[in-house]
Amino acid sequence: MNFIDLGLNNKILKSLEEMGFEKPTLIQEQVIPHILKSKKDIVGLAQTGTGKTAAFGLPILEQININKKNIQSLILCPTRELCLQITNDIKNFSRYMPNISVEPVYGGAGIENQIKAIRKTQLVVATPGRLLDLIKRKAADISSIQYLVLDEADIMLNMGFKEELDAILATAPKNRQTLLFSATMPDEVAQIASNYMKDPVEIIAGRKNSGAENIEHLYFMVSARDKYLALKRIVDYYPEIYGIIFCRTRAGTQEIADKMIKDGYNAESLHGDLSQVQREYVMRKFREKNLQILVATDIAARGLDVKDLTHVINYDIPDESEVYTHRSGRTGRIGKTGISITIINMKEKYKIKQIERTVKKKLTETKVPNGRDICAQQLLHQIDRVKTVKIDNDQIVPYMPIIQEKLASLDRDELLKHFVSLEFNHFLDYYKNTPDLTPVKHEIKKEVEYKNKKKGIREWGQASFSYLIINLGKKDKMLPTRIIGIINQCTRNRNIKLGNIDINDDTSRIQVENSFVGEVCNALIGYKFGSKKIKVKMEEQTMGKN
Ligand code: AMP
Hints:
By secondary structure, this protein is α/β, with parallel strands linked by helices. Strand 16 (498-503) and strand 17 form a beta hairpin. The two termini are 45 Å apart. Adenosine monophosphate binds next to helix 3.
């Protein structure tokens, strides 16, 4: 089906062509003809990224009476960002319809200018609180609206706009057509539909409460202390990543973003503690793909319209499965497969089950990539870059003689090794001797026991080590022999392979062979030395990436 078949006018068709919209999306195919022909209300189950703005925006534009300068359509949405984005989309759709005006109104900005702006406008895009304020001041008259759109209804209710919505819906004229869009259908949304809509037609773009079909859902289970290390490995495993890492709190978001920036990633944070100017700067940078990774809270990321996210990473698994649906809906957009990743600790496994029930899909448990996996991926990526790099002959040719001369001593094989090593070496160095991050309790321990039993002896020759730091040092009268004694005692395993032990004032650094790291951590954590509870952490290596 094409846009022409949907019954849209030439001016709209022209703007769609310029915007690169070739074919209508599933929801557009269903919603556009319905609005053009029927007066029946709609409940549309659709996630962000399905093309729903055009689905309701285009037919509404078709029906605006350009001879009247009153509010004919009202679009309600949860945030300022989304409000601006919808307004912008509609302005783009109507760029060849000069007599149509659309204005955004939202909280946190001067009300006087908004009052002036909406005086003669036909289409208002609003957040519920600000609109109600305008209605109460008699600055917005919605008594003649034909269309009332509730976009992201579940989020509006989640954000506590129930009272405002009730008040607005009660004021709106009875003969309006109501179009409600929501990614999920919790009871509160169903209630709005049953209280304020007449026998609505249900339109589903994708299954109800489901993740979009073209999303791969993976989860990684790691010990809580390894979460950040696992995140870095996952990001390193996908060199082409362009995605959002979701965290629960503003402070957590900033902390992860700071760590990633320090470790050399092209990342920034986006959360409510930033000023509007900072947020807009970060969003623009991300939209323009000058930023590869955005670490964000749910609220701040709302309204950020980015196409083609390759990955969504749930660094903190959301408590509500609906939030998961929203987050993962940001990847796998129109015709593209995306990957939704969740990092959990062992105690959070039950939340995966809840999410699986909501999205009606299995989330695949996946092992955190190890150093070898990551290096292989990075190497292939490097090779692809070498293969596909654009060559500007005019610029390069003059330098060729000197390049030839300088590299004359290297044969083809050596030359290739040199080029690839240039960027690849830091990954090799960083991931050399790094342990698996599989959680200790239910895998490593069993695996080690099994291997030892099977072999009778271990291969000592090729061992690789990691450092563990414990909170006992000179002040606790630690000596290397004492530490070995403690480890023997709490693991009840005399075959643990240890390397160097450095004792500092408050802490000690213990080199442990990688296959025993899990077992040692597990046994030491919480073990009491005198009155002191032992705390253990893995020494983290930092690296530059760019
Ligand atoms: P939405 O779900 O309305 O936020 O749309 C998601 C993104 O898809 C926006 O950037 C739209 O510009 C884009 N989009 C919407 N419909 C189409 C279409 N038919 N073809 C290509 N892109 C589209």
